[in-house]
Amino acid sequence: MIIYNESSSKFINHVLEDRIESVLLEKVQEKMNHSVSASEIRSWTNSLPQMAKILRDADLKEGTHVLLEYKLPSTEKRIDFLITGEDKSGKQNAVIVELKQWQKSQLAEGDGIVRTFLGGRERETVHPSYQSLSYKRYLENFNEALYEDTSISVSSCAYLHNYIPNKLAEPLLNERYTSYVEQSPIYFQFDDLLLRKRINDAVSEGKGTEIARKIEEGRIRPSKKLVEAVNSLFEGNEEFILLDEQKVAYEKVLSIYNDMDLEIDQKHTILIKGGPGTGKSVIGLNLMNFLLGEEATIEYITPNQSFREILRKKLIGRSGFVEIRSLFKGSASYVETPENYYDVLVCDEAHRLKNQGHMKRKIEGENQATQIIRSSRVSVFFIDDEQVISNKDIGRFNLLKEEAEKQNSTVHVVELDSQFRCAGSGNYLEWLDNVLYDRKQDIQLDGDFDFQVVDSPHELYEKVVKEKGGRLLAGYAWEWNTKRVDGELSKDVVVEVHDFAMPWNDPARIDWAIHPEGSEQIGCIHTVQGLEMEYVGVIIGNDLTYNPETQSIEVKRENFKDKGARPAKPKGKYEVDLLDQLVRNTYKTLMTRGMKGCYVYCVDKDLEKGLTKNILNSFSN
């Protein structure tokens, strides 16, 4: 969606008449029906006049077109400024200009990452050249008008009109960013003449109206090049081989898709139920790979940002094709998507769906499940009601079924039973359920899964992190202080009796599970859900205790610190406390992240004694 598409002369007039902000506000209201933040309006006020000066002096013929706030389809990203036209040789061009109000920056770890002042504080973000280049590559790989009609050439650059570079050692020009700057040049405060020449060279002859129209109306679907890159990741890769029920579920979805008559307005919703480690993600990724090859419009949805980023990095790292990122979306991405815009949407970890996305425009009567089902002909949800870990999680089986039926979508149910995580030990899961949910059954723990109870968090760290290369996790029994102390993360997870303290995982490090820094931080439930590691060490806080008299697990509401996830306290004497189930679900999820083993340390000594005594038996013995 393009908010503003006008000739360059009209754009210049709107700026000179001090009308550009009001024009853009009117168009946003007209096309998107929502308000604009004060910071966004300030960016228009500060940046667009700078571009108007450059265009005014660039000697452009009538018909050169300016596109502002081009929302990249099926993303929340927008191109600030895009200009179209022909050069003196008659070649059709589109130039992306990423506008920044930055004044200084610093080097940061990570490919294409810098630090600068944003949103009231200093934070990590992508290099402007990387950002503008990624928008260019997105258009080239997802806009059919551009990859089918190769007569239009897209280029990109960044303009930091308030930024005076350090002549001795400018961070943004550091050699680590050279490849991005070479492909997408960066212009600073006194580089206006250079930018003016670049634009003149590309679009001076006008005739940009038709180019702009093609870009705006181009169908959004992955290019053949991108599809082939994804397919190459799956060929011969045993990690993605489908086994038993996985294969059955996969073929079920394909048969429903293949039997659909696309000329008839029909919808199907497939609910695939499976516990931890039943291979839900493997099925979903295989579906995406195959259906991309069938030229279906498909996206892969994960509500958990950390899980989404790990999937992206794994696949991008193997293919080198960064545009794969755009196939993976968050669950709040479909608020404004038209009916049946996609052929298929696959939603992993659907139990984490919310009523509305954070900071998103809200639509009365809709939730994220409603929006996903509405947006696609076939919607596939992978769910496990026992992994609901927050009062905000709505994606239970019954709700998804009801939402599908409201939209006249035919519902299909598939169940997965076989266990492919936890050393393939269904026995461990059965034993763990018996313990956590007090089922009082006679179940002995056996099999190949390495489960141990240790005496201290230091021992947990040594055995899991140092010896096994795993990660430490913890229940939400400690406050989370997001403010840094002298630039360091606050060590909030404290076990005083053992003089142990470590920080929660860095919120800015969404690849915590695979980043080296993650070994010195403790993962929370919101970070690790959906992920898997060879070994995990779980610190069970005092929100989960054991009562020797009743021989039962007990949840202590007063020790649960995740205020956003905590349901209201029961009012009636016999009313069930919903928090009880959420805390048990949290520890089940944490204790099933390991593929080979899980070691635990219990803050509550009675719980430690109970687990130690009964590792080979359930609590009921």
From TrEMBL:
Gene3D superfamilies: P-loop containing nucleotide triphosphate hydrolases. Coiled coil: none annotated. Residues 266-403 form the AAA+ ATPase domain. InterPro entries: AAA+_ATPase (IPR003593), P-loop_NTPase (IPR027417), SLFN_3-like_DNA/RNA_helicase (IPR018647). This is ATP/GTP-binding protein. The lineage of its organism: Bacteria, Bacillati, Bacillota, Bacilli, Bacillales.
